[in-house]
Design brief:
Layout lengths: L14 E10 L2 E11 L4 E5 L6 H9 L6 E6 L2 E2 L5 H7 E4 L11 H6 L44 H17 L15 H15 L3 E5 L7 H16 L3 E5 L3 H7 L2 E6 L2 E6 L1 H4 L2 H8 L3 E5 L5 E5 L5 H6 L1
Parallel strand pairs: 3-8, 3-9, 6-7, 7-8
Antiparallel strand pairs: 1-2, 1-4, 4-5, 9-10, 11-12
């Protein structure tokens, strides 16, 4: 039985952002952002629209380079790594997956093996026998751009890779879709396929951008459970989330961004408070904690937004 949830080679390294600044042209997006994501824990990144959450995730992934500051996995700066080295260390689920070609689902998931963390380094375990070439699945957003050109069909290695793909499809509940054209799937189905590719990549650091946005409630809960299992297996997991209540259920640690700066960081109980959320989202929000520790977030009716902003 393939174990997708124990980090390959033992617990992943810490993921650290140190005094990050970033701008698109003259528009500054992030200001002196420092965060730490630790192996065995899930870190949630929250904040209003346009506050820099997805940009921060792209910097953590090494897909963007900061104007100043540094991102490290363990002691290694991500900017010093090649795409192939990055793909071995971290897997990324983007907010919006784009599929420029009509890949079969199984072949798309097989692209995750190109990181080198699979048994046969992506040597043709998909239906098409060559789908791990990485010719269009998104630069840096998975292992697709880092696959080896080896297509030797090595018997035992190929069988092991096929087992990894099967396990990833099963975990993400997309086995029944494996022979379908990914461009013909619903948004939620495509999101689950992309998550399956992340699982197949078997990188120690897992970065997720709005992973539950397109999912129904049962698949949201399933994905949250899988994220918890990844963390329990020694992975470092970072998730950008809009659903504050889901963040309370999923995350061990939370970073709250406001206007591109860290407004607060800590455990969900420390950060997800009525006062902080009301100030950051500029809308009155009531937070209650149930007897079992569940955090319940309730937006309330505001008389005026201005009154809220002045608090």
């Amino acid at each position: 039985m393939v174990d997708l949830f124990s980090a390959v080679g033992g617990p992943a390294g810490e993921l650290r952002a140190e005094h990050l600044n970033f701008a698109y042209g003259t528009h500054r997006v992030l200001h002196d952002v420092s965060i730490t994501a630790r192996p065995g824990r899930v870190l949630g990144v929250l904040g209003p629209n346009g506050t820099g959450k997805s940009t921060l995730l792209s910097l953590l992934a090494g897909d963007l380079s900061p104007t100043s500051g540094q991102v490290r996995i363990g002691t290694t700066a991500v900017t010093s790594l090649s795409w192939r080295e990055l793909a071995r260390l971290r897997a990324v689920m983007p907010q919006n997956s784009t599929f420029p070609f009509a890949y079969l689902v199984r072949d798309l998931v097989a692209m995750g093996l190109g990181s080198g963390n699979g048994a046969a380094r992506g040597n043709g375990a998909g239906r098409g026998g060559g789908a791990a070439r990485g010719n269009g699945a998104g630069r840096g957003n998975g292992a697709a751009g880092a696959s080896t050109s080896t297509q030797n069909g090595a018997g035992t290695g190929r069988a092991a890779d096929a087992a990894i793909i099967d396990a990833a499809l099963r975990a993400a509940d997309v086995t029944h879709l494996q022979d379908r054209d990914v461009t013909r799937l619903s948004g939620g189905e495509q999101a689950r396929v992309t998550f399956a590719r992340v699982l197949a990549q078997r990188a120690g650091v897992v970065l997720l951008d709005e992973p539950t946005a397109a999912l129904d409630i049962s698949h949201q809960q399933r994905l949250l459970e899988l994220c918890r299992r990844l963390a329990a297996g020694g992975h470092t997991v970072v998730a950008v989330l809009h659903d504050i209540q889901l963040a309370g259920a999923l995350c061990d640690d939370v970073v709250l961004l406001r206007h591109g700066r860290v407004e607060a960081a800590g455990t969900p109980r420390q950060v997800l408070t009525s006062e902080l959320l009301t100030r950051v989202y500029e809308w009155p929000i009531r937070v209650e904690t149930l007897r079992d520790g569940t955090i319940v977030v309730v937006p309330t009716t505001a008389t005026t937004t201005a009154t809220t902003s002045e608090k």
